[in-house]
Every structure is written in structure tokens, then in C-alpha cells.
Amino acid sequence: MAKIISGKEVSAQVKERVRLENERLKSKGIETGLAVVIVGNDPASKVYVNNKKKACETVGFKSFEYALPEETTQQELLDLVEVLNKDTKVNGILVQLPLPKHIDETAIINAISPNKDVDAFHPINVGKIMVGDYAFLPCTPAGVMELIKSTGVDICGKNCVVIGRSNIVGKPMAMLLLHSNGTVTICHSKTKNLREICSQADILIASVGKPNFVTTDMVKDNAIVIDVGINRLENGKLCGDVNFNEVEPKASYITPVPGGVGPMTIAMLMQNTLTASKIQNGID
Ligand code: GUN
Whose C-alpha lies nearest to ligand 1, atom 4? Predict the structure, then answer.
């Protein structure tokens, strides 16, 4: 039977660390602010944005929310980003993805000042992650690293398999595991022998976006299984990429959905916002 890794508990610890450090900044007269921009009416995005606002309150940051209508033009969004780039009360800028189809996401990400890019999506920050010298953490992968760290298992030399190669999760996830000296394989939709590769993983990370994709035959005995997926089933319930009931008895540690990786992403965003504030205010 696996131990359940609680993202709720670990994220609370990260947020408490951030809150205390923010108290120190406040005692120097420094306020930290995060701008969150959402365009359109995606219900899932609205929930995420609301959770980000709540997390700001918990750690003592100011949050500035910009909820723009679906028909907002790319130029209007670029203009807002430019205003936020210049606003000294705003230390971090997050534009919630996905954006409506008529807006080029890359153009928007590239317009955010790299010093305020608390998602670490700007190519400058992505490059820094690649070379291993970075201030801003890629939020979801960094959250996964905290969860693995909470198990006490050392990543060094372990077979790590990441399923999924997105810019937000799969690619930066592989980098962070590599920086911790894991032996890393990235699998994706064109991978041959997926089952065989996954079943050799000491640490298996699923970021596929398909409910119950990882089944027991894909999991090594006593593996650590981290489920990044958040899929909504037809009955309205949330479900991960891992078939939890099947895999749990075989794993040593496993994350639940919800309550696993999800809360970690937001905690790491708080950590990045604090980092942005410190850099912008010249504080160590
Ligand atoms: N949409 C889904 N995940 C994320 C995230 O981490 N950041 C942003 N900006 N949008 C997202």
C-alpha cells in the first residue's frame, strides 16, 4: 500500500515559508503584488484564478485581478501587459492560459517583462532553467519536486520517466529531475514501448491529460507515482491521469487528484512572486 503524498500539507508549508519571508519584506516597508489576467469565460481558468487570489491573501500579497471579455483583442492585451510591466506595485504578472483562439499566446508571453514572469514561461526564463541557473521556478514541475522531496527519497541516479512533453510541465519537469541527477526519459504520444519504459521508472510522472491513462502494468513495484493530470469526467468529478485505485497498492508513494500537485502549483507561484519582489527591491 502506498503512502499518500498530501499536496495540501506540503503546499501549506511552502506558503507559510513565503508568508514569513513576506513579513520580513513588509517590515522594511515593501509590499508585494501579483497581477492576474484572465481573458474570456473558461470555467476551469476562473477557478484557478480565484485560488491564486486566495493564496495571495494567505501569504499577505496584494493581488490585482484583470478579468477581460472574450472579445479582447491581442493589441488590447499587449497594451495591458505593457502597463503592468511598468507598474511598480506589480511585482509579478500572470496571464492565465489558455487564451482565446484569436490571441497568439507566444506574443503575449514574450511581452511580459522577464523580471515579472512568475510563470517562468518567457524564453529568457526557459533558457535559464535549461542551463540550471534560474530565479523563477517552473511552478508545476517545482511543485512536483517539493512533493518528491517530502518523501525523503533521493532522486540521484533514479530512473525518472515523464509522460508528456508540454512546455509548461513535461519539458521543464525533465530538466529539474536532470538537475537533481535523475536518469530522465520523456515519453509522449509517439513513444514506442510506452508500457515497458514506464514500468522501469523509480519515479513516474504523468502529465498526459487523459483520465486513468496510467494503469498498474505500467508501474514498477514501489515506484513513486506523481499525477499532474486534472481531468473532468462527464459526471463532473475530477480525475487524474493515473488510475489511482489500480496503481496505489503497487506504488510506494502516490499523489491524489485533487489535493496532490494542484495546490503545489499555486504555492510555487507565491514563491516566485516573492522572488520577483526581492529582485526588484534589491533584497537578498
Ligand atoms: N493554465 C494552466 N496552468 C497554467 C499555469 O501554470 N500558468 C498559467 N498562466 N496558465 C495556466
Answer: 97
Size of the chain, expressed as the number of residues it contains? 284
Distance, CA of 271 to CA of 71 (rounded, Å): 32
Q: Are 151 and 253 in contact (CB under 8 A)?
A: yes
Let me know if 119 is a catalytic residue.
Answer: yes
Q: How far is CA 126 from the centre of its chain?
A: 14
- The one-letter amino acid code at 196 reads E
pLDDT tens digits, 149-158: 999 999 999 9
State the DSSP code for 100: P
Q: How far is the CA of 96 from the centre of ligand 1 (A)?
A: 5
Residues contacting 243, CB < 8 A, separation 6+ = 212, 213, 214, 215, 216
Q: Kind of pairing, strands 231-232 and 238-239?
A: antiparallel
Q: Whose CA is nearest to atom 3 of ligand 1?
A: 97
Cell numbers at 86, concatenated = 511598468
Query: Which residue lies with its CA nearest to atom 1 of ligand 1?
Result: 97
Q: Of 197, 202, 211, which is closest to residue 242 (Cα–Cα)?
A: 211
Strand partners, 68: 39
The residue written with cell numbers 513535461 in the block is 170
Give residue-wise pLDDT tens across range 190-221.
999 999 999 999 999 999 999 999 999 999 99
Question: How much distance in Å is there from the Cα of 121 to the middle of ligand 1?
Answer: 9
At 28-61, the pLDDT tens digits run 999 999 999 999 999 889 999 999 999 999 999 9
The number of the ligand 1 atom at minimal distance from the alpha carbon of 45 is 1
Residue 119: count other Cβ atoms within 10 Å of its Cβ: 24
